[in-house]
Specification:
Helix content is 83%, strand content 0%. The longest helix has 27 residues.
């Protein structure tokens, strides 16, 4: 393996690890997020009967908002999170710009641009 391919490989590993860090931040509570979203969908579905689901009530009470507002906010946040994770995935695929670069200098330029995007994503996280 040449020095150039080792460096490109290191760039790719750094990109993958940075994106994995973002995924990990949310995946550790993914079951909770999915349950909360499912309960919000059920609660806001016309014809819903019964007590407010536990996850909705837990959120609304602590946030000091109505159950309906809490369910609506949960669905908005879930959509925003899915969109954000889509962007992370798209950004991670840009690692192929690094591997296809003709020179190590071009690879580094691509790497820096990708990492700037990842940092911007991280900064936008709630």
């Amino acid at each position: 393996m040449s020095d150039e391919s080792i460096t490109k490989a290191q760039f790719v590993v750094n990109i993958d690890n940075s994106c994995a860090d973002i995924y990990h931040r949310y995946s550790r509570f993914i079951l909770e997020y999915q349950l909360r979203e499912a309960q919000a969908i059920a609660f806001l579905t016309p014809g819903f009967v019964g007590a407010t689901p536990r996850q909705i009530r837990a959120f609304s009470e602590r946030a000091g908002i109505t159950d309906t507002a809490a369910a609506t906010l949960i669905l908005q946040q879930a959509a925003q999170l899915r969109e954000l994770l889509e962007v992370v995935g798209e950004t991670r695929m840009r690692k192929y710009e690094v591997t296809r670069a003709a020179t190590i200098g071009d690879a580094q330029i691509a790497y820096v641009a990708i990492m700037q995007t990842i940092k911007a994503i991280e900064a936008s996280l709630p």
